[in-house]
Amino acid sequence: MSIEQLAGQQKAKRILQHALKSGKVSHAYLFTGPPGSGRMAMALAFAKALFCGSGSGDACGTCIECRKFEHGNQPDLHVVEPDGNSIKIDQIRELQRELAYRNSGMERKVYIMKRSESMTLQAANSLLKFLEEPSSSVVAVLLADNGQAVLPTIRSRTQWVPFLPLAPADMLQTLSLEGVPVLLGRAAVHLASGLDACRALVQQNGFAEMRNVVIQLGKDSLVRFTAAILTAQQQVFKSELGDQPQLLLSLLVLWYKDMIHIQAGRQDEVVFIDQIDWLRKHAFARPAEGWIRCMEHTLEAGKRMRANVSPQLAFEQLLVRIQEG
Asked: What UniProt keywords are attached to this protein's entry (predicted)?
């Protein structure tokens, strides 16, 4: 994937694409931002563009170098990950040996370091010496959740590239390209923070089933109280879904929020998009304040569960409050 094809992070894209187009590529970059903001994907896309022979300012995807990269056959790309909880000095020394091996100074080499803030002091000092004497053919990309946690002397020798939390629409675009079903993706990006958490959620056993149960509960909780109670008892608390009552409540909040989106004409923001016809028919059954109260009751049920109230009891009390309005 090229830099341009990645979702979001327009500032990071501008910095990297300008460097590629102008030929003024720094010897070291620090990609800093929250988990799930796409730093590793951007680092790989940047590395691919650096190796690309097109000179277009991004990876062309068709040249020999791009094809080698896509097939995992690029020997001049090195990825460093923590050994346990930290990156150790021996790893830095091994990296330096790899980069120096058969380096004529002409062929470009790239290394990506995950969780660079986890370097031990000895490892950081060893890397610092390497950064102080940069080779024009070597480009470093350091990744960190918190760039301020990286040794200041290393920070001063890198170009800072900030990453922001991805917007739900950007995360949904990425998940869809990865083959995640849109209906699950739309729910996940409003429940989880960051792409990695979204991926873990949609891959979780029972997530699709829980979404379907929430749709049934959302409908029955408004007009069929007895049916809602039976659904909760049989399909939630007598199944594995009952092990994650907080997730179920979070999905239910999204259901009631969709009612407000419909009332406000924001149909593009609806999460349960496959239920749009039903939502349109029932969204105006209560004023917006009524749906807000439903959301508040649902959040209160979550608090009661965290305070060790029986999840089933808390949920049944929630259904009573929702029907009462």
From this structure: Nucleotidyltransferase, Transferase
Q: How confident is the model at residue 194 (pLDDT cuts 50, 70, 90)?
A: confident
Domain annotation covers residue 4: no
Same domain, 194 and 216: no
Residue with tokens 């989106």: 261
Residues 185 and 291 in one domain: no
| 138 and 33 housed in the same domain | yes
User: How is residue 9 written in tokens?
Assistant: 């992070």
Predicted local confidence at residue 32, as pLDDT = 95
Domain count for the chain: 3
Model pLDDT for residues 132-159, shown as the tens digit of each residue: 887 768 999 999 999 999 999 999 999 9
C-alpha to C-alpha distances, 13 to 139, 146, 159, nearest whole angstrom: 17, 19, 13
For position 117, what pLDDT does the model report? 95
Long-range contacts, stretch 213-220, CB < 8 angstroms, 24+ apart: 213/241, 213/248, 214/248, 214/251, 214/252, 214/255, 215/255, 215/272, 215/275, 217/252, 217/319, 218/252, 218/255, 218/256, 218/272, 219/278, 219/282
Rg (CA), the chain: 25
Residue 228 has pLDDT above 90, yes or no: no
